[in-house]
Amino acid sequence: MKPKLFLILVLFSAMMMSCMQEKKIEYPVTAKGDQVDDYFGTTVADPYRWLEDDNSAETAEWVEAQNKITADYLSAIPFRNDLKNRLETIWNYPKYGVPFKKGDRYFYFKNDGLQNQSVLYMQDSLESDAEVLLDPNNLSEDGTIALANLSPSNDGRLLAYSISRGGSDWNEIVVMDIASKNMLPDTVKWVKFSGISWFNDGFFYSAYEAPAQGQALSGANQYHKVFYHKLGTAQSEDIIIFQDKLNPQRNFYAYLTEDERFLFISESQSTSGNALYVKDMSVQHADFIKLAEGFENDYSAIDHLDGKILVVTNDGAPLQRAVLIDPTNPAPDQWTVLIPESKNVLQSVSLVGNLILAQYLEDASTKAYFYDYSGMMMKEMEMPALGTLSGFSGEKGDQLAFFGFTSFTFPSSVYKYDLNTHTYDLYTNSEVDFDPEGYVTEQIFYTSKDGTKIPMFIVYKKGLKKNGKNPVLLYGYGGFNVSLTPSFSIARLPFLENGGIYATVNLRGGGEYGEAWHKAGTKLNKQNVFDDFIGAAEFLIGEKYTSPKKIAILGGSNGGLLVGACMTQRPELFKVAIPIVGVLDMLRYQNFTIGWAWADDYGRSDDDKEMFQYLLGYSPLHNIKEGTHYPATLAITADHDDRVVPAHTFKFMAELQSKHQGNNPVLVRIETKAGHGAGKPTSKMIEESADMYSFIMYNLGMKPTF
């Protein structure tokens, strides 16, 4: 190409980008209703209440109009297609899950590269050829029917698995004979928030009654029950094992010890805190015994050791400990402490071989130790790098186990662990087109508004200059005791390759430092979470990593609330905001599907006047101000999200488009046949990533090359 012609094309491209940025978007006019609610004497208008009806023609028309202007905007970004092509290229490599054993067979998931859903394989031994057991890609042409859960029977003869349609939390359980791969006639519907636990010739599961017509994706979920399904019978004959007729807002989860001797029921009314029950299945007509009262603490039964129940709990130990409980004498003063509380959070415990593996979080990265059955620490497990251990898979008595490991620049890999020698070898590695040696990961600690030290991981290319001009993608969650640990993402590689900085913050509200850290970001302390996130941006600016015009913020679900709250509190601090499936209407979240279960973290607008006023003070929907210049916003939701219903995003974006000033685009992307995120097919993930990252990079002024 001649130099003059090349210069003309560059100038033309720059001119087109400038025109896009300067042109004000004409948003569809969203009709306003006259709905007004009274909260303790304070009236609050809710003009977009009609958008809560996910079945109405008016809502469908609004969605279509919004998706059109969003698609028009995204398709005009000059490098959007090149970014998509790059994503397809780097996405296309084999991805392996951690193998697990049932009976004499091994099972594992594999995705060849761009398959919409990962395929379940099985092997008779690690040396034998693998064969396809279940390919979810055959369940639908577009990959929108996904596996939600699966459970081989302990003898490895049968496979029960549940499927989700279009990303919904509603599941349907079916059963396969593994040897013949023939489907049994058994089908169980309206399953939600459930395991599949085999016992004798059937399994335990949790479900709700069938929802009313038109209410499947938005109606409140109430009266959860545990059932037992016997193979060969109709679902109508399933026996109710556990329920609570007096408290409709309780959830129940059933699971068994590895030898099927003890059945546990975990009873919860929120996302943290539970009661724990046990039943000795070896004793005929035995009753359930309550091992632990709810709902102030967490109790997770792991298995049993000679009839004593091994439980991980934060009862009396905010950073958690492992105790043994005698089911015939379960009083707390009779518990035996097996692994005491330490300085780090005890994240999980499992029985592998003839040992106990305890995994800890130390400043948001994994540490792991082996203990014997008496509680004596035998050996620290060496990690491949600073990162996250996942899916340690092994059974009692086995001498071989598998685990997964990942970090920000360490693609997910699977290792085989010898429990005799405590050595491990790489079993399957990643072949992604990415050179981790060209990048730096650092962990820093900065001071939040109230003086609390907050950890943050920062990832960037080697040779970065701290000149205040680098684009930053800042990610956080900050809720429900969820810990953010180092993890690898294919989707963010092009951002890093083009000079972007990725930062993830371990905000209060999470579980990185135990229950006190969690509680410090809940209810009347929720503002701490937003202050922590704002403080991260201010730190990055102060240390010359970046500037306000170069920061994008990203979060999903509770993280979508985080983004919504921060962009409305400090709109001048961020250039781009991406709230994904966010909880954005804090006055009404509890009225939809499982929203009532989040009240322990959020509080409710009808609890009392103080709680209402606090929620109103930060609710993203209710804090959009007329005439404010808000960041360039791409809100993302999906039509089948029955966890955080799309009405949150619909109402928030209608209000934002009505009041926002300036030329920053404020758009909403509404995916079809998708839900809260689980089971999303690869094709949709690539499309969404291309849209999201092209929006981010374009509005941060990046000029990427692919």
Would you give an account of this structure?
It is a single chain. It is built from eleven helices and 39 strands. The protein is an alpha+beta fold and 706 residues long. It folds into three domains: 94-256, Methylamine Dehydrogenase, Chain H (7 Propeller); 342-431; 434-677, 3-Layer(aba) Sandwich (Rossmann fold), CATH 3.40.50.1820. The strands form nine sheets. The chain has an eight-stranded mixed sheet with strand order 32-33-35-34-36-37-38-39, sandwiched between helices. Strands 3, 4, 5, 6 and 7 form a five-stranded antiparallel sheet that branches. Helix 3 packs across helix 11. The chain is globular. Mean pLDDT is 94; it is low at 1-19.
CATH superfamily of the largest domain: Alpha/Beta hydrolase fold, catalytic domain
Fraction of residues in helices? 10-25%
The CATH class of the largest domain is identified as Alpha Beta
Strand order of the largest sheet: 32-33-35-34-36-37-38-39
Domain tally: 3
Shape: globular
Instruction: Tell me the distance between the termini.
Output: 19 Å
Low-confidence stretches: 1-19
Indicate the proportion of strand residues.
25-35%
Largest sheet: 8 strands, mixed
Average pLDDT taken over every residue: 94
Instruction: Tally the beta strands.
Output: 39
The rounded Rg comes to: 26 Å
Secondary-structure class: alpha+beta
**What do we call the CATH topology of the largest domain?**
Rossmann fold
Number of continuous helical runs = 11
CATH-derived architecture of the largest domain: 3-Layer(aba) Sandwich
